Amino acid sequence: MDFRDKQAIYLQIAEYVSEQILLGRWTAGDRIPSVRELAAELEVNPNTVMRTYEFLSQQGVIANKRGIGYFPADEALDKIRAFRREQFLQNDLPQFFKNLTLLGIDLNEIQTRYDDYVNANTHIR
Fold it and tell me: Where do the structural domains in the chain lie, given as residue ranges?
């Protein structure tokens, strides 16, 4: 995993875990990798993954079943989507609109490219 400098590593790992849940790779009832397993996979300190799991637990995205491990919460998909949607609408979309305006890109072109993307990536839905 390539980490970005502008965001804490544990938050970047939280995004990774959330994405795995959104993509259906880790579903409610399925155990997610242990702290040590994920740390080894991502080549980070286990304390960093533990911080990620504690953060996601506080957000209600994952739950710890004592002695068994961590699992996506039943409502994980809804919580992740709501959080990411709000982040996108407040942070990314204004910058996107600014770029459209500065570059003179028409919304019809965006629609066409979006439709092409959706058709090429139907497996994501």
Answer: 9-74, 77-124
